[in-house]
Structure prediction request, 376 residues.
Amino acid sequence: MTGRVVAVDLARGLALAGMMVAHLAPSPTGDVPPVSEIMSAGRAAPLFALLAGVSLSLVQRRDPHGVGSIGATCTRGVLLVLAGLSLGTLRDMPVLVILAVYGLLIVVALPLRALATRTLVLLTVAWAVFAPIGLLALRIHHEPVLVGQPNWTEIHDPWYLVGQIMFWGGYPAVVWMAYVLAGLVIGRLDLTERATATGLAGAGLVMMVAPLAAAWLHMRDWTALFAGDVYPYEPVTWGELWIVGPHTSMPLNVVSATGSAALVLGVCALVVRSHLVRRAAMPVRAAGAMTLTLYSVHVLWTWRLRLDVVGPVDGSWRDWTVQVLVLFAVAAWWHVVIGRGPLEQVVRWVSLGLRRRTRPDPPTGTSRQRKTPVLD
Prediction:
């Protein structure tokens, strides 16, 4: 079990670095996307979402009456929504904050943990295919909805805010649920087994490449594989089903992004079998164990960098390098000296505190073992 959590932490740390590339790296110029765009754009955030589903499965088994309980998980989801809306309310926030979507997804996914594995697999496949089709149908038959950053100023119109998070925003929860469902399935695997980790990586590679190949055969233009959708600035048609670019939330995009996430997690599960790799990757794993804290700091840091800039902003590899080095070094130090990340500790205190107020303690003589993810 320990190796499995280590793999999740490593994958989550890589996802954080990938999201920072998307926010800070230089913007693509010309028709040929840079390697950073090909590797991270539209894939780091789905990896986070998939790992959220994996974590839901893990905590349910490790501490079903504590942090894995329904009450504690719902509280964490609500706190993520509140944090996402708060960050989004900051003036001229340049990062499309995804925390509100994550918070909603983990709450909605809670009852699905009880499904049989076969049923969950079928539901995941169906969701990945039909939810994007349904969203496209809504976009075709609905007037364009111009949305920005979900934030507290929209609370006066809750239906608009919910619609923005569920359907019209950059991370439509109705589609992104597919990533969490895939994570719930993967969370039931024993990734400490070499054959399982290898199979997951292989299946992920096929799922990542096959949609790209299908889209290329249809369009015969490989640069079009990284193009975004035109909604809401232009009318959309059923031809959008073939697009596979970053965050287009169409079937090929969802399947490919799910595959890349599975590939990363499978490879992480394989490489952490080496003690040397585990030690060398400790800063990345430490960052992956406190991503809520580091993501929030990254968002605020990036916001401050862009706050006083007038006009379009081109990214900088220098900004990305500085943030990665500083945040990952702090994470390594924090893990060695203190342990759990500060925001992670606050969320734990609040979620377990509220659960204790609504659920009586177990009878005297019973013990409740609480396990926390370890990095070594």
Observations:
- The CA atoms of residues 148 and 213 lie 32 Å apart.
- Confidence is low (pLDDT under 50) at residues 360-376.
- The radius of gyration is 20 Å.
